[in-house]
């Protein structure tokens, strides 16, 4: 029996219009094609899908035209990549001669691209973070060395695994000032500086501004490191000036994007160049400032600077040495506190004039010293102006005139002594005449008394004393005139013992006033020596006088002469308090004295030393506190 297959419409089966309504109501983008994949119908969802992805149905039709329909009852997918980069998937299903098409976006591709985009954003954020940190680091760098170290840290973090070289040069000469390399540099690779043409163009660097012979431009980036295969570089350019370059190279096998690295490197180089420029400007300003400070500090002149509040802001070494005050003790103090109280009224109008911009020359005043003394100085003032022309302080440059003023006093004193000397010579002349008469008459009376029988011996003794005293006065006045008379610097053969005795005779009044005694120990065999007698007497008068002043009543001045080899040696020793070690090295300095005011000029020992040295000898001193002082004079003996 043969069976027959026929179509049976079930009870309640929908009409074709109902299927069309169902097709249109589908939310999934769909289309119906024939076996040639020509689109017969599309639903509204597909039209919306195409509009969302900025494509037309015709684009889908073209994509389907190049595809192959699946076998009956089979299905497969067709990938479609749009110009926007979006990837679509068209799922084809065939039933007899009808092919159903469903469209969807490839979520895996989108997810992958999102991951890539996310990674790119994260990398960009990391790069910006490193550049921001680098900006802070270079801004805080205290100098070029610290700046290069900060840049090296940034490059390492931005470009791990690369070899790199940072070179900083002088913008004017092109000379290398700093170099940092991470990797094994080729020999001689750090100079000269070779710039990449494309990078130079991007930084708008003017070729004519480059130092000749120190910088060149090339179409290719030279390889500076061993084992590198590729390289990128970026010049450090700021305000049209070249301050160096950063070279970065890739070892073989490193997966990297040189184009991206170059963009980041140029961005970093631009930031670094400004920092390098600022660092070099700061270094130059610091150098100039330190140079000026050293110039003021160590100048061979007294330099003092005060601000508008009259506070001291500069007090150089010359002033510190003169006053004994350190900078720490002076800086910030009011200027009036450094001058003597009697000088403050005179100082006020000078400062006021300087604050008005007026210069003052040769203003003399007295500065206080650390030990409470005073030094006389002469200053010339000048005003320091701000950019708008306002006075912001006063600088005073001067010199110590204490010695000059002291010399003026000494000259006046010497002139007085010269006048007194002339008067003394006249007085001596007037004394000599009557004393000669006294001596003559006393001698005559003594001779008569001796010839007279029964004369009183007591009267004869008195006449002898009158005669001896008269001769002593005559001898003293004669020696005094000889001593006061200017020496003719004509050496003569003199006896050293006689010279010392003459000095003792001149000092008898000093010895008696000091109530000390003199003990002499002369060697009888000291040969004569060639000397200016008056000058040598002056040396020993000064040494004996100083010894008397250094002792209390009851002290002893010990004088000795002796021959030592080819020298005659005189020692003047006292039993006084001795000289402090800190003063011993200055004892022969002019105007240095340890005596109270009015007791000494500080010139005596200096003059004595000069006289002894002019005779070819030496004057030395030995002293111990509480044990006395010994001055030793060594003079060459006369040669036949």
Alpha-beta classification:
alpha+beta
- Provide the low-confidence segments as ranges: 1-11
**Cα Rg:** 56 Å
CATH architecture of the largest domain: 2-Layer Sandwich
Q: Roughly what fraction of the amino acids lie in strands? A: 25-35%
Return the CATH class of the largest domain.
Alpha Beta
Q: What share of residues is helical? A: 40-55%
Tally the beta strands. 23
Multimeric status of the protein: single chain
Please summarize the sheet with the most strands. 5 strands, antiparallel
Average pLDDT, rounded to a whole number, is: 80
Shape: rod-shaped
CATH topology of the largest domain: Beta-Lactamase
Number of helices: 17
Gap between N and C termini: 181 Å
CATH superfamily of the largest domain: GAF domain
Count of discrete structural domains: 5
Quick structural overview:
Keywords: ATP-binding, Kinase, Nucleotide-binding, Phosphoprotein, Transferase, Two-component regulatory system. Its EC number is 2.7.13.3. It contains 17 helices and 23 strands.
């Amino acid at each position: 029996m043969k069976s027959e297959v026929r179509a049976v419409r079930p009870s309640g089966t929908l009409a074709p219009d109902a299927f069309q309504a169902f097709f249109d109501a589908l939310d999934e983008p769909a289309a119906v094609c024939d076996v040639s994949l020509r689109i017969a119908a599309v639903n509204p969802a597909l039209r919306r899908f195409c509009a969302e992805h900025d494509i037309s149905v015709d684009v889908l039709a073209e994509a389907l035209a190049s595809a192959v329909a699946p076998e009956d009852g089979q299905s497969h997918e067709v990938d479609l990549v749009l110009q926007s980069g979006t990837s679509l998937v068209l799922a084809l299903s065939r039933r007899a001669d009808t092919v159903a098409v469903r469209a969807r976006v490839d979520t895996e591709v989108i997810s992958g691209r999102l991951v890539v985009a996310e990674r790119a954003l994260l990398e960009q954020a990391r790069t910006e973070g490193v550049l921001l940190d680098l900006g802070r680091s270079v801004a805080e760098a205290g100098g070029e060395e610290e700046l290069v170290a900060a840049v090296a840290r940034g490059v390492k973090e931005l470009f791990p695994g690369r070899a790199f070289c940072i070179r900083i040069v002088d913008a004017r000469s092109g000379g290398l000032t700093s170099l940092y390399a991470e990797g094994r540099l080729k020999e001689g690779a750090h100079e000269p500086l070779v710039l990449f043409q494309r990078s130079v163009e991007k930084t708008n660097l003017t070729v004519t501004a480059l130092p000749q012979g120190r910088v060149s431009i090339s179409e290719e980036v030279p390889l500076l490191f061993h084992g590198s295969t590729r390289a990128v570089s970026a010049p450090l350019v700021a305000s049209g000036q070249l301050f160096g370059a950063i070279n970065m190279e890739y070892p073989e096998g490193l997966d990297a994007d040189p184009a991206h690295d170059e963009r980041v490197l140029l961005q970093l180089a631009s930031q670094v160049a400004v920092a390098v420029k600022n660092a070099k400007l700061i270094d130059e300003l610091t150098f100039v400032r330190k140079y000026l400070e050293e110039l003021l500090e160590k100048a061979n002149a007294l330099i003092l600077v005060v601000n508008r509040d009259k506070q001291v802001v500069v007090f150089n070494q010359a002033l510190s040495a003169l006053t004994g005050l350190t900078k720490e003790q002076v800086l910030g103090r009011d200027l009036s506190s450094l001058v003597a109280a009697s000088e403050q009224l005179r100082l006020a109008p000078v400062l006021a004039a300087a604050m008005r911009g007026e210069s003052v020359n040769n203003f003399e005043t007295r500065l206080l010293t650390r030990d409470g003394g005073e030094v006389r100085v002469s200053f010339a003032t000048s005003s320091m102006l701000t950019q708008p022309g306002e006075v912001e302080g006063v600088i005073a440059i001067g010199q110590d005139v204490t010695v000059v003023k002291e010399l003026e006093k000494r000259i006046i004193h010497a002139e007085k002594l010269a006048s007194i000397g002339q008067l003394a010579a006249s007085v001596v002349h007037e004394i000599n005449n009557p004393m000669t008469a006294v001596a003559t008459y006393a001698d005559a009376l003594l001779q008569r008394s001796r010839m007279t029988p029964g004369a009183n011996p007591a009267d004869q003794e008195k006449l002898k004393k009158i005669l001896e005293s008269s001769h002593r006065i005559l001898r003293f006045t004669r020696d005094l005139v000889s001593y006061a008379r200017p020496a003719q610097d004509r050496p003569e053969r003199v006896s050293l013992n006689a010279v010392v005795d003459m000095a003792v005779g001149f000092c008898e009044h000093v010895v008696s006033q000091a109530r000390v005694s003199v003990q002499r120990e002369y060697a009888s065999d000291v040969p004569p020596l060639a000397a200016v007698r008056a000058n040598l007497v002056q040396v020993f008068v000064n040494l004996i006088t100083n010894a008397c002043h250094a002792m209390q009543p009851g002290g002893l001045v010990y004088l000795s002469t002796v021959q030592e080899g080819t020298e005659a040696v005189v020692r003047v020793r006292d039993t006084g308090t001795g000289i402090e070690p800190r003063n011993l090295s200055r004892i022969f300095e002019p105007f240095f004295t340890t005596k109270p005011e009015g007791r000494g000029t500080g010139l005596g020992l200096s003059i004595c030393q000069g006289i002894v040295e002019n005779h070819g000898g030496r004057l030395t001193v030995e002293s111990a506190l509480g044990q006395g002082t010994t001055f030793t004079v060594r003079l060459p003996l006369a040669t036949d």
